[in-house]
Amino acid sequence: MSLGITILIAVLISFLILFTVLGNSFVLFAFLIDKRLRNQSDFVLLNLAICDFFIGAFTSPLYLLYMLTGKWMLGRFLCKLWLTADYTICAASVFNIVLISYDRFLAVTKAVLYRSLQNKQSHTVLSMCVVWIMSFLLYGPAILFWKNDFIDNDIAADICVVGFHDTWYFHLGTSCVDFVLPLISISFFNISIYHNIKRRSRKKRQTSASEQFREKEKAGRLSIIATNSVLFSLQPHGVNMTSLRHYFCNKHISFPTNNGRVGQVNVQITKLSRDKRLFKSLLILVCVFVICWAPFSFLASINSACTGYCVDSYWYEITFWMLYMNSAINPILYPLCHKKFRNAFSLVFKNNWIHKHN
User: Fold this and answer.
1) Which CATH code fits 13-356?
2) Alpha carbon distance 267, 283 (integer Å)
3) Nearest CA to 277 among 185, 208, 341, 210?
């Protein structure tokens, strides 16, 4: 690779890393200053933002240095620390996407249960901790205790890879746990949400059509009764019945509706609209996640199956940085998909502006 290409790649990836750190720092700062971001779904997004921040602040800069120089120059301890952090944080990102999907699944399909959990912050904190514990247990012990001929050998001190890098059955097992099973879970939650919203939308249309028909039928009956009553009362006074009947038949007469029932229908419509927005925001987040993660997971599995010699390192590096790029995209999706985050970001900008001009 020429020096010019190397410098260009270094500059572009450095901008990506900087954007990842600043974007996720902004998200974390918004959580700190906006007290409205305190319910269960917000904390789950906070957990994902923490993962993305550490990817930008710690793991990706070290990998950029390793990639550009072609050798590890930071010692064995930092090598194992970096590998453990990288694998743990990336796995936590995947599990957080599953947790977000599950949270939206409960909000849409199990509304009563979801409301009861909103006031139980201990439940939310426990879920966040479980994500990190599972992520560490998946890779941490293997990285720390698996026999590693590269790290433990003074001759290969400039190489930093996991001991199981060419162990296909370990990669296959972990790929199932940290990508295939999460993808199946995410698909199940999203499909369930979609069918729930579709069923409620169809029911709403049927209910609206039925209500409209009943109201028109009721209005027609009342109109006939009212017209006949007026005509009957005016008949003794010699009024032209034909003209008067023609007037009443062409006159629109409105009648009060059942306000209680209308209010209930309006609440259902509002909740349905909110759930549709939740589903759209979740779908965008999940689609970006799959696009960024699927290529790397696929190539990593192939690479381990053929002991690391059947996939060109060029493609491997591209998919690896696609994985990291997901952490830079997520902070953009939060305000685009969630009104609360737009308000929180506006509050952050306002506070910064006031602070600068005081």
Assistant:
1) 1.20.1070.10
2) 24
3) 341
Per-position DSSP letters for 34-101, written without gaps between them: -TT--SHHHHHHHHHHHHHHHIIIIIHHHHHHHHHHSS--SHHHHHHHHHHHHHHHHHHHHHHHHHHH
Please give the Cα distance from 320 to 310 (Å, whole number): 16
CA dist 291 and 319 (Å) reads: 10
Rounded to whole angstroms, the Cα distance separating 340 from 262 reads: 28
Number of Cβ within 10 Å of residue 282's Cβ equals 23
With 80 as the cut, is the pLDDT of residue 311 above it? no
What lies within 8 Å, CB to CB, of 232 at 6+ separation is none
Sign of the Cα torsion 131, 278, 31, 356 reads positive
> How many angstroms separate the CA atoms of 168 and 306, rounded?
8
Residues 77, 57: Cα–Cα separation, whole Å: 18
In the chain, what is the straight-line distance between the N-terminal and C-terminal CA atoms, in Å? Answer: 51
The per-residue pLDDT for range 10-30, each reduced to its tens digit, is 999 999 999 999 999 999 988
Identify the DSSP state of 236.
Answer: G
Give the pLDDT confidence of 177-198 residue by residue, as tens digits. Answer: 989 999 999 999 999 999 988 8
Q: Which two tokens stand for residue 127?
A: 């879920």
